[in-house]
Amino acid sequence: MLNKKIFLDGVVIIVNNFNIASQLTFDIKQDSPFIKLHFELEGKIDFQPNNKNDISITIEDDQYNFFYLPIIDGVLNWYSGIRKSVEIECTEDFIRKIFKNDFYKISGIFGKALREKTAFKMWEEGEKIPKTLKPVLDNIIKKSQEKETDLPYLESEIIKIFLYMFSKINNKEKTNSQLYLSAIEQEQITKVETTLQKNIQASVTVEELAFAIGINRYKLNRNFKHVYGEPIFQYLTRLRMEKAKEILSKKSMNISEVAYEVGYKNPQHFTVAFKKYFGYVPSKLK
């Protein structure tokens, strides 16, 4: 059974992993604002407000949602079975610190809800957890189980999640109609993502990827970002950095060897990229 709370400045991370024999129901009442990112990896929860005009929230297996409640007054249900979740509760000040003076420009409908003190949830129903965020959530879970928690590292992972979330909020505002991809287009993008996963060492261009699946570069970039939430090479850099960190943590390899394993011919270029991504040099993990 795992039920771990980690406290950062303005953030509480809650990692759950346990089995519930029968449904649990909690009466929840709170007069202060509540901002939360909830990832339900396995299981189901829902919140039903006592005031039927307030928003209800249901999140099931492999779903997530982001919401703000000016006050809380209702019933929280945890359903029977295995529950695995990562929950991130934060203050408005924490999010403001990430975006600084650009907060209201970037925060969109969420920022408007804060100003007007009206309830907000990003998705009407729980949204499927994007592949982009799953390695970040895995890292948070692993770090939560260590004896000495690396708080700066966890904060950097939380910031990554919020940067992703606010890019989704902005994209959602730009158009009411989501880009529609046909089954063939979905298959093409999945094929590209699989290629990136299997060829972290290789040097590959967008033109080569586009040619391999039979579409132009512009369409590939647009469709890939729509599905995975970030440009192709930002996604590839993340794969490389996460793989490099895993190797450095588990294997006795020097920096040059690790750089080569993740597609960098020049170890210094790798070190610069690693520090830019994580905020510290790779030798810190050795």
TrEMBL record:
GO molecular function, one term: DNA-binding transcription factor activity
Entry keywords, A to Z: DNA-binding, Transcription, Transcription regulation
Residue ranges annotated for the HTH araC/xylS-type domain, each copy included: 190-286
Pfam families: HTH_18
InterPro entries: Homeodomain-like_sf, HTH_AraC, PchR_regulatory_protein, Tscrpt_reg_AraC-type_HTH
SUPFAM superfamilies: Homeodomain-like
UniProt cross-references to PANTHER family, sorted A to Z: REGULATORY PROTEIN PCHR (PTHR47893)
Protein name: AraC-like DNA-binding protein
Gene source species: Flavobacterium aquicola
